[in-house]
Amino acid sequence: MTNHISTKWVGGMAFESNNPSGLNLKIDASPEDGGEGSGLRPKALMLSSLAGCSGLDVASLIKKMKLEVDDFHIETIANLTDEHPKYYDAVSIEYHFYGSNLKEEKLQKAVDLSVEKYCGVMEMFRRFAQLEIKTFFHLK
């Protein structure tokens, strides 16, 4: 299976990129890098892709396991190298679960399955960055 994405320059430092979902997104540089800051930054978008990919796995597993979770979010904190080409060499991924009846063992299993087995973006990151996975349970 292949993905084909078209990315079109829309002037200045801005681009518009399509997606198989049918939605488009705008990419732009920050003003200090010559852009208008009117779009998403490419490297940060990679972190959103990582969190989104794993989040979809975990949300699916929460549903399949019939777990009660009031809220759930993922924080990705990445270190960018100093030398060009700059890339993420270390990424911390934090899973935060909120609820009054959290089944911590099962939620951790869902995170582990995403990290170790299902999330393709996680596997791609593993090829160039040191990953640190943390899970936090916030009881209400």
Describe this structure in words.
The chain has 140 residues and is of the alpha+beta class. It folds into 2 domains: 1-40; 42-139, 2-Layer Sandwich (GMP Synthetase, Chain A, domain 3), CATH 3.30.300.20. It has 3 helices and 6 strands; from the N terminus they run E-E-E-H-E-E-H-H-E. Strand 4 (71-80) and strand 5 (88-99) form a beta hairpin. Helix 1 (42-64) crosses helix 2 and helix 1 (42-64) packs across helix 3 (120-126). The longest helix is centred in the middle third of the chain and has 23 residues, at 42-64. The protein starts with 6 loop residues before the first strand and ends with a strand. This is OsmC family peroxiredoxin. InterPro entries: KH_dom-like_a/b, OsmC/Ohr_fam, OsmC/Ohrsf. It comes from Flagellimonas allohymeniacidonis. Pfam families: OsmC.
The number of helical runs is 3
- Terminal Cα span: 43 Å
Biggest sheet, spatial arrangement of strands: 1-2-3
CATH class of the largest domain: Alpha Beta
| Mean pLDDT figure | 97
SS class:
alpha+beta
Write the layout of secondary structure elements.
Layout lengths: L6 E5 L2 E4 L7 E3 L14 H23 L6 E10 L7 E12 L4 H15 L1 H7 L3 E10 L1
Helix pairs in contact: 1-2, 1-3
Keywords, please?
3 helices, GMP Synthetase, Chain A, domain 3, 3-stranded antiparallel β-sheet, 32% helix, 140 residues, 6 strands, 2 domains, 3-stranded mixed β-sheet, alpha+beta
In short:
This protein has 140 residues and is an alpha+beta fold. The protein contains three helices and six strands.
